[in-house]
Amino acid sequence: MRHAKSSRSIRTGRGFTLVELLVVIGIIALLISILLPSLNKAREAAKAIKCSSNLRAIGQAIVLYSNTGTNHGSLPYGFWNGRNDFNYYGDQCSDWSTVLANTLNPKVGIDYVSAAQFSGGNVNVGQRAIFTCPSAKEPQSNGGMLLHYTAHPRLMPDITYRENNDALNGPAPAGKRWRFQPYRFTQIKRSSDIALIWDGAQTPNGGGTAQWNAEAIGLELDQGRIYGWDGNWLCDDAAHNTAGNYMVNNFPVDTSASNGQNQYWNLDADQNKSQIRFRHAGNRATNILFVDGHVEPKRASTPTNGELVRGNIQVPYVRTTRSQ
Asked: Does residue 121 form part of some domain?
C-alpha cells in the first residue's frame, strides 16, 4: 500500500512534456502576434493625440502673441535671418517658435543663440516641448532646440524676402522693395479652412549635433508656389491670379519632394525639406493647426492625391506694408 501511494505521488507530480511546452509557447506567440499590431496602433494613436495637443497649445500661444503689446492681432513672422541682407545670416536669427517661446516666457531670448543658451542643452525645457512631435525622428544626440512643425509661408513669412510686385503694392520708396509681412487674423477669410501650422519634414542639422529639425516655414508648400515674382502665389484673389486654372480650390495640394523626385516623398531628408510630413496613421496623415485654432488630421496616399486641397492654403492677397 505504501508503494502504491508513492507511485501515485510520483505520477501526479511530474512536469510538462516537451509537446505540452511547445503548445503553450505556440499559443503565447499567437496571442502576441494578434495583440502586437493593436498595441502598436494604440501607441501611435496616443502619439498623434499628443501631437494634436501640442498644436493646440501653439495656437493658444499665437493668440496670446497677437494680443500682446503692439502686435495688433498679427501672427508672428515665420523666420528672420537676423539682418535685412537676404544673403547673410546674423546672430539674431529667429523664427516663430522662438518668438512664441519668448511670449510664453519672457526670460527666453527670441534669437537662436540666447534661446539655445536658455534651453541648457535640453530640448524639452519649458515651452520648447510643445514644438516637438512624439512621432518625429529622434535626434542622435540630445541638445539644442528641436522644431518638428512648419508654418504657412504666406501667413507667417520669412520677412527677409522682398516682394517684387509694385503693380499690386504701388511703387516702393526709392531704392527699396516691399517686404513680406505676417497677416493679421482679421485679414484671413475662411479661418476654419486655412492651414496655419502642420507636421514638417525633418532634415539633419550639421555641426556634429545630428539633430533632425523641420524648416520653420514651408517654402516648398505646393511645390514652392509662394514667392513668385508677381507676388501672388497661394492667394485666392481672382483679380491677382495670373496662374490660370492652376489655382482651383478643390485640387489636392502637391506634396512632392522639392526636387520633384517622388522617391523622396514623405521622407525626412534634405531632398524633402520645407514640405509637409504625413508621419501619423502609418505615414499617411499629418496634424494641422487651422487659423481658427482647431486641429484635425489630413491624409494623403500619393504626392498629388490627398485630403489637403488648395482651398486650405490659398489666402486673400494682402498688400505688404513695410519697405526696406
From this structure: yes
- Could you give the number of structural domains in the chain? 1
Distance CA 172, CA 101 (A): 34
For the segment 19-48, what is each residue's pLDDT rounded down to a tens digit?
A: 778 888 888 888 877 776 766 777 888 999
In sequence order, what are the residues at sequence separation of 6 or more whose Cβ sits closer than 8 angstroms to the Cβ of residue 193? 290, 311, 312
Q: Establish if 128 belongs to a structural domain.
A: yes
User: 135 or 108: whose pLDDT is higher?
Assistant: 135
pLDDT tens digit sequence for 43-67: 888 999 999 999 999 999 999 999 9
Cell of 76: 508672428
Say which DSSP state 22 is in: H
pLDDT tens digit sequence for 255-308 = 998 777 889 999 999 899 999 999 999 999 999 999 999 999 999 999 999 999
User: Which stretches of 126-238 are assigned E, i.e. beta strand?
Assistant: 149-151, 162-163, 178-179, 195-199, 202-204, 212-214
Rounded-to-integer distance, Cα 174 and Cα 168, Å: 17
Q: Within a 10 A sphere around the Cβ of 7, how many other Cβ atoms?
A: 10
Please tell me the distance from the alpha carbon of residue 314 to that of residue 266, in angstroms, as a whole number: 22
Name which of 120, 95, 96, 93 is nearest 107 in CA terms: 120
Which structural domain, as residue segments, surrounds residue 69? 35-323
Structural contact between residues 148 and 166, judged by C-beta atoms closer than 8 angstroms: no
Return the residue matching grid coordinates 540630445. Answer: 142
What are the CA-CA distances from residue 177 to residues 23, 163, 167, 230, 323 (Å)?
A: 78, 7, 12, 13, 5
Domain presence at residue 27: no
CB-based contact 271:258 (threshold 8 Å): yes
Q: Would you say residue 51 lies in a domain?
A: yes
Helices 96-104, 18-66: axis angle to 10 degrees equals 80
